[in-house]
């Protein structure tokens, strides 16, 4: 059934982005009489077309096509549907969603009881669409997931969405990835986390956050007990003192609820990794740590290897695109061989590791029964490396879906080819066929399931 209208008086959003062609709204033929309980609309595509005519708005053929498919799912009795209107879908002609298009779409979905997810990534909704997204959050009480990544939303749009979440009690997972909300928008989201007690996962990667907002998030997360996963990838930082890791490290000492932390492209160096490792001696909740694409070297692996001897919580570590070299790989392998029995997945993709270090990691898998996933592509393979990983796969110790290499033989010699598996292969894109949420391509999210959608 529809939710009642008692929440319709929530605090309103600023009116700097008015709905296009506003005016008296004619009552649709299928609308209930005033004061009666509303009934679900039978056809989303018909309602969408009707609203476009009513508001003198051009029908977006791509939205109409997707709504037809959703209508069929609703006819089958399905609920909990995610409406996927991704603007980077190459399998069909795409008319990207603008802010005005999103206004009509939001009105179509406003009280629909079947839709609980909305994916409009890679469109053009901008701050205009962000205004209508904020209004939708105030009126749609079924949405648990919204993906707005790469939609040209700026600081003002970020502010509108963050303020709408002050009173939202439904949304669990929000992706703002790639929208340049900057430091100003980031501060509004940090303030929101002081109030909101429902949101479990927030992605603000590639949003041009500044140091001020990173510090604000670190401060707020010492108190927020609801957020289980947060992505703060690629902030705009200045200086060489690893300041972001100092504050996030302090947060990890105090926070005992966060399960997933992404700090890719933070310019983390060995000193910064030490701050994080010092915190991980005390933290007993973090299960997924992503420090990929940083400036960590083999010296930093001394700190990580040491903390893994006592930490029994970490299950997934992403060290991809650092410079670990053989010494760093050997440090990790020694700990994984003799001490740690909690880590399930390790990614060392493109870490300047050669045969000696890669073989050492493969040897640790023979004695460590818990480590099930390892990703090594982009390093320097020699024949010993190829034989070692081919042997692990052949004996069944390493499942083909749990690694990013596959052995093949040419003229009696074993080589390794790359396969499309990883911790988060579909972070920025999804495949045109198959299951976008499959374990093999998104092992990190499968092993640490925070949030129901990608």
TrEMBL record:
<dbReference type="InterPro" id="IPR001611">
    <property type="entry name" value="Leu-rich_rpt"/>
</dbReference>
<keyword id="KW-0677">Repeat</keyword>
<dbReference type="Pfam" id="PF13516">
    <property type="entry name" value="LRR_6"/>
</dbReference>
<protein>
    <submittedName>
        <fullName>Leucine rich repeat containing 34</fullName>
    </submittedName>
</protein>
<dbReference type="InterPro" id="IPR032675">
    <property type="entry name" value="LRR_dom_sf"/>
</dbReference>
<dbReference type="InterPro" id="IPR052201">
    <property type="entry name" value="LRR-containing_regulator"/>
</dbReference>
<feature type="region of interest" description="Disordered">
    <location>
        <begin position="1"/>
        <end position="37"/>
    </location>
</feature>
């Amino acid at each position: 059934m529809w939710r009642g209208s008692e929440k319709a008086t929530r605090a309103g959003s600023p009116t700097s982005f008015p709905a296009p062609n506003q005016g008296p709204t004619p009552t649709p033929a299928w609308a209930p009489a005033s004061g009666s309980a509303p009934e679900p609309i039978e056809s989303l595509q018909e309602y969408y077309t009707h609203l476009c005519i009513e508001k003198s708005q051009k029908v977006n053929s791509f939205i109409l096509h997707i709504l037809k498919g959703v209508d069929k799912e609703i006819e089958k009795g399905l609920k909990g549907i995610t409406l996927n209107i991704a603007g980077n879908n190459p399998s069909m002609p795409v008319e990207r969603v603008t802010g005005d298009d999103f206004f009509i779409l939001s009105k179509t979905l406003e009280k629909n009881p079947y839709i609980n997810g909305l994916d409009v990534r890679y469109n053009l909704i901008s701050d205009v669409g962000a205004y209508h997204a904020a209004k939708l959050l105030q009126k749609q009480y079924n949405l648990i997931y919204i993906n707005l990544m790469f939609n040209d939303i700026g600081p003002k749009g970020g502010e509108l969405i963050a303020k709408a979440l002050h009173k939202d009690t439904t949304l669990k997972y929000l992706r703002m990835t790639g929208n340049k909300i900057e430091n100003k928008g980031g501060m509004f989201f940090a303030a929101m986390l002081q109030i909101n007690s429902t949101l479990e996962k927030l992605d603000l990667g590639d949003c041009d956050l500044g140091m001020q907002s990173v510090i604000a998030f670190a401060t707020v997360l010492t108190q927020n007990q609801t957020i289980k996963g947060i992505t703060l990838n690629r902030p705009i930082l200045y200086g060489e003192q690893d300041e972001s890791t100092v504050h996030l490290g302090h947060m990890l000492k105090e926070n005992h609820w966060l399960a997933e932390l992404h700090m890719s492209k933070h310019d983390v160096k060995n000193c910064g990794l030490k701050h994080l490792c010092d915190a991980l001696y005390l933290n007993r909740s973090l299960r997924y740590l992503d420090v990929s694409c940083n400036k960590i070297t083999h010296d930093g692996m001394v700190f990580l290897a040491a903390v893994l001897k006592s930490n029994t919580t970490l299950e997934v570590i992403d060290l991809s695109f650092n410079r670990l070299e053989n010494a760093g790989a050997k440090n990790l392998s020694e700990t994984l061989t003799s001490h740690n029995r909690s880590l399930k997945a390790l990614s060392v993709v493109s870490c300047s590791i050669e045969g000696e270090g890669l073989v050492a990691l493969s040897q640790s898998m023979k004695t460590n029964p818990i480590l099930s996933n390892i990703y090594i592509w982009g390093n320097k393979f020699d024949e010993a490396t190829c034989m070692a990983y081919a042997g692990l796969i052949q004996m069944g110790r390493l499942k083909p879906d749990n690694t990013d290499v596959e052995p093949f033989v040419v003229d009696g010699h074993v080589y390794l080819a790359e396969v499309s598996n990883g911790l988060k292969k579909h972070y920025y894109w999804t495949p045109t066929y198959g299951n976008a949420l499959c374990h093999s391509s998104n092992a990190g999210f499968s092993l640490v399931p925070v949030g129901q959608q990608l």
